[in-house]
Specification:
- With 139 residues, the chain is of the alpha+beta class.
- It is globular and about 40 Å long.
Length: 139
């Protein structure tokens, strides 16, 4: 397994991975999400490949106040091998090196498996309400 930064040529494999993991939604164009990420801290967009194919990914970012992680995905065929844990550890290390004091994330309501995973890594529920407003619609 090889953990490395995302390369533009990885896009089709990463989008397929996100679809396989159920991370895509009709209101988010994954190609646009990738293009946007490549303009801001592209070195924090990480993938794991297994002898060629990409089997895991995560997008990290830091805007000076909090770090964030999005699109943490591990191919169903490669789960329970520590890849998500490895990606999170690498992302945390890179954010810490940037001076990031806290890493935040959002999990879709009802995704108990993801919540349990993050709790196992030491994350706790923040008592906040997540709000959003579309500034640029993907559709």
């Amino acid at each position: 397994m090889n953990l490395r930064p995302f390369l533009a040529a990885d896009q089709p494999q990463v989008i397929a991975l996100w679809h396989a993991c159920g991370l895509t939604r009709p209101w988010n164009d994954p190609a646009k999400d990738i293009a946007r990420k490549l303009t801001v801290q592209p070195e924090l967009f990480l993938v794991v490949e297994d002898a060629g194919p990409i089997v895991a990914s995560a997008m990290f970012g830091y805007e000076g106040h909090r770090g964030w992680v999005n699109y943490l995905a591990v191919a169903p065929s490669h789960r329970r091998r520590g890849l998500a844990r490895q990606l999170m550890a690498e992302g945390e290390a890179r954010l810490t090196a940037l001076g990031c004091p806290k890493l935040s994330l959002q999990v879709r309501a009802g995704n108990a498996q993801a919540v349990a995973f993050y709790e196992h890594l030491g994350y706790a529920t923040d008592e906040v309400v997540s709000l959003g407003k579309w500034l640029i619609a993907d559709q």
